[in-house]
Specification:
By secondary structure, this protein is mostly helical. The chain is built from 10 helices and no strands.
Length: 291
């Protein structure tokens, strides 16, 4: 009996494997969420200096997703391997740096937990170690990273959205989530739908209602789920955005003019459509047919 057979026959083994994998991926996503925008900013600065023929101040140390090793931002203490175990290290250290006792943001273990719990839920949903489960994990973790980066910086990096789009088309070569024609049309329709809304809003108000990253994210969702899922995703994202936006205005006293990123709402709606899209559509048509 090979590993896949063992995972498929014993959900406890599959679930524990997915939970541990999700926790570790969540830890890596914390690195991506923090470092990728910084890397992009440094690249933009370098490009501007080259364009303007200005001497650029060179960084003394490489900065990417692998280097330098994680350190405490307060005392520069190097995070040792046993201090970087997802969730457990945070609990053992009581949420503080082992050297200077500065508090560590609760967001780190929360993202690790979300990564693990969502992976566990997907394992339960798909019922086994299949190609559909593998794709759903990649889709989910990419959406999680995009959500947090957009919340922090109002930015959806091309280095995530574009590979996500192409991966969706690749998985649908064999019709994993949608037929290939539906996936291609979904990518095109996803981009053009928000592109049209963007220009219509700009012509009417003179303001930019969303960024180009939102177009690419919806195109990626369309590439994964097919064009049929796009109306549901747009409707769900609008509903989620309205509810969360009102809560933020009430709880945080945010003004109406404060920009709110739309990417997280698209990501949440896309994930809901991935997992519960079919039951939602069946319920809708059953309700519409009986009315």
């Amino acid at each position: 009996m090979d590993v896949l057979d063992a995972l498929n026959q014993h959900f406890s083994l599959l679930g524990s494997t997915l939970l541990l994998l999700g926790l570790c991926v969540g830890s890596f996503l914390n690195v991506v969420i923090y470092r990728l925008p910084v890397m992009m900013e440094r690249q933009w600065r370098s490009d501007c200096c080259e364009l303007l023929e200005v001497e650029e101040k060179k960084e003394t140390e490489p900065f990417n997703l692998a280097r330098p090793n994680s350190r405490c931002p307060k005392c520069d203490h190097l995070i040792r391997p046993w201090e970087n175990i997802p969730v457990l290290s945070y609990l053992a250290l009581r949420g503080r740096c082992s050297q200077c006792k500065t508090g560590i943001s609760l967001r780190y273990p929360i993202i690790e937990l979300i990564g693990g719990l969502l992976a566990l839920l997907l394992g339960w949903h798909y019922g086994g170690a299949t190609m559909a489960l593998l794709g759903a994990l990649i889709f989910t973790w990419a959406l999680l990273a995009l959500t947090m980066i957009d919340i922090d910086h109002q930015l959806l990096p091309d280095s995530i959205t574009l590979p996500l789009l192409w991966l969706g088309l690749c998985f649908n070569l064999l019709g994993t989530y949608a037929s290939l024609p539906d996936a291609v049309i979904g990518a095109i329709a996803g981009y053009l739908s928000l592109w049209c809304v963007y220009w219509l809003f700009k012509l009417l108000t003179g303001k930019e209602g969303m960024g180009f990253g939102d177009f690419k994210l919806l195109a990626a969702i369309g590439a994964w789920l097919g064009w049929q899922a796009l109306p549901m995703v747009i409707l769900l994202s609008s509903l989620v955005g309205a509810v969360i936006g009102m809560l933020m205005m009430v709880l945080q006293s945010r003004g109406k003019d404060v920009p709110i990123p739309f990417g997280p709402y698209l990501a949440i709606a896309g994930w809901i459509a991935l997992v519960w899209g079919d039951p939602i559509m069946r319920f809708y048509w059953a309700t519409a047919g009986s009315s």
